[in-house]
Amino acid sequence: MKNISATELQNKIKENDDLVILDIREKEDYESGHIENAILLAQNEVVHEIENIAFEKDTPICVYCYSGNRSSRVAMILEYLGYSEVYNLGGIDKWTFELVSK
Fold it and tell me: How far does CA 58 lie from the centroid of its chain?
């Protein structure tokens, strides 16, 4: 797992159409503001749902949550499952760009 800054993530978003961004917060938090195109996924659903989201193990995946605790755990789980390009933004407060609401 690699930590990633908001600026680095913004650049990856612009460069890579295959990038998957996972929001590991609660639904209400996600709906009040999230990174554009982020997918809401509960921590306990990662093992069962990730293959429906990221088919290839080399798919770049970035995770974030509210404070960085859950995203760190999920990033480690993804690496354990064999995903090779996993990034952890940490908490949503690290994102210095615009959020979208649902």
Answer: 15
